[in-house]
Each structure stands twice: as C-alpha cells, then as structure tokens.
Amino acid sequence: xxxxxxxxxxxxxxxxxxxxxxxxxxxxxxxxxxxxxxxxxxxxxxxxxxxxxxxxxxxxxxxxxxxxxxxxxxxxxxxxxxxxxxxxxxxxxxxxxxxxxxxxxxxxxxxxxxxxxxxxxxxxxxxxxxxxxxxxxxxxxxxxxxxxxxxxxxxxxxxxxxxxxxxxxxxxxxxxxxxxxxxxxxxxxxxxxxxxxxxxxxxxxxxxxxxxxxxxxxxxxxxxxxxxxxxxxxxxxxxxxxxxxxxxxxxxxxxxxxxxxxxxxxxxxxxxxxxxxxxxxxxxxxxxxxxxxxxxxxxxxxxxxxxxxxxxxxxxxxxxxxxxxxxxxxxxxxxxxxxxxxxxxxxxxxxxxxxxxxxxxxxx
Length: 364
Fold this sequence. Notes:
With about 375 residues, this protein is α+β, with helices and mostly antiparallel strands. It folds into three domains: about 1-35 and about 180-245; about 35-170, no CATH class; about 255-364, no CATH class. It has helices at about 1-15, 60-70, 195-210, 235-240, 325-335, 340-355; strands at about 25, 30, 35-45, 85-95, 105-110, 120-130, 135-140, 145-150, 155-160, 165-170, 185-190, 215, 220-225, 245, 250-255, 260-265, 275, 280-290, 300-315, 320, 360-364. Strands 3-4-5-10-7-6 form a six-stranded antiparallel beta barrel. Helix 1 packs parallel to helix 4. The radius of gyration is 33 Å and the shape is flat. It starts with a helix and ends with a strand.
C-alpha cells in the first residue's frame, strides 16, 4: 500500500512538468490494440411528413411488410404506402472499453429516394460488426441539421437533410474483450511516424521510468511496465500518456488553389533565390451598336460590333531572398513584393521547382 501511494505521488509530480511548446504523448500516439470498431445496420425511419421513400422503392415496402408481420399484422404488399417511411443505413463507432449498457451516437443515412429525414424516428435496429454478430441496438429520434422544402416548382434546401444523427440512441449489447490487467508490455503507434520524434519519446519515458521504453522504428515505441507499477497499470499508462515531448515537424507547405489558402510549417527553409513576379491582364470589351440609314432612303439597318483590346502588365521587381531564412522572414519578404495569396502559391511552386525550397509541397 505504501509502495502504491509512493508511485501515485511520483506520477502526480510528473504531470506537472514538461517542456514549453511540447505535446503530450497521448496526442501523438495510439496504443496498439486499443481502438474503436465500426458497426453497421439496416433500419427504417418512421414519422416523416410525406418526405419518405416513393412507392417504387421495393425494399422499403418489403421491409415495412416484414416488420408488420413480425408484430402479427398481415398487410398485402401492394396496399402499403411508404411516403412517411424511409429505409436507412445506420453506422456507429464502438469505442474501446465500451461496456454493455453504454450509450453512443449513430449516423443515419437515407438508402432510398427520401427527400428528408427531418422529424423522423429510427425504430429498433440491430448493429452488426465485421464478424456478423450484433454488438448494439439503435433507436430514437433523428436530429437533422438542415431542411428541404418544395412548392410550385420552387425549392429551397439547407445542408443535407437526408443524413441525420441519433444522439445517445445506441445501446451497447456486446463488449469487445480487451483488458490491460496483467499486461506487462504495450506498443505505442505514432500517428505521424518520424524517427526523431520516436527517439525523443523513448528518451522522455526512460527519463521518468528508466529502461521502460525503446524506439523500435519510426512509428512504434515499445513500453515495458516496471515492476513497481504492475499493481496499478492504469496509473502507469496515464503517466506515460501525460509526459510531454517536442515532436520534430516535417517541413511542409500546403497549398489550396481553389481558395487561395497557403499554410507553411515553422520548419520551412529556403536557399538563396531571386524572385520576380508580375501579372499580365488582358481585357477585351465589346460594344454592340447599329448603323441607321438616312431618313427616306432605301438603306437597311446594319448591326455594328466594336471591340477594344487592352493589355496591362504590372511592374515586377526582382527581390533576393537570402538562404536559410525562416518562415517569418519568407512571408515578410513576399509581402514586401505585394503578392496576394494566389500569387504566393505560384511563387512557392516556382521556388520548389528551382530546388531552393527544402520542404514538401502538398496541393489540395
């Protein structure tokens, strides 16, 4: 008991320390084997106001007839109207360590030709895993973050009304077996594999728990549970996840040509390069007119089209960017040239092509 109290006190002290600007290990890695699982099911949404599937959607009719038969109600398929019913696919993520009785959310998506799920209620739907076993049951009212309306040939729509969410409407029925009790070894998987970050992470863990961690490769850290922590593995892993390390970022430039967005990491560096940037604007304007004949003459009215073509080239100045400049200096230098975000995209692509930009350029 004394040893456990001493361990908890030691772990609490570790949570208070950490280098400035660093990130927690839990934000950089995932514990192998501890992950969510996708579950899926087919169900019906009822209570719609005429926005459900059309009568030509055969599987919705068949599903409704089958459901009514299970309830002891026999209905001829041809007599069933489904305009207030919609067939849907129900998807959810079963989180790790979810226990029987836990409540989670589900996403409901229209499967037929329904126009809106607004105001509908999902009836009891089993959710299956990849092994075909039922892991949860879903039921409840649907929240749709949009609407659609149509009348007189005009229509209006906001967001996507054929996809909704059942908040807390999924009840976990079967648990996925996983227990950390008695475990003596864990593997941490880096979300962004990097040798430098993996080495720093192992060093940070070993500084607090000597000999507990080893960097197996750029994406995996092996962690052994110390003997003094075997009685409380949860506290040990909580302490490991709360340790802070400074990740080594990759020099990357992200360009979005559709929106003119440019995002550059702080590790971006360029070599000495000269940049000149200007733009050529060509304008063609057309004026339509008519040529009228003299009064009482035999002439005819003739259309006349006058076009004016003008070209304006902005003055481009040659600027020299010194080698090894930081991202701040690079932005200040380009701003001094009066470039716009879209101009900046073209300049960065040209600098990368010249070999002066030592960074990954990702175009979205």
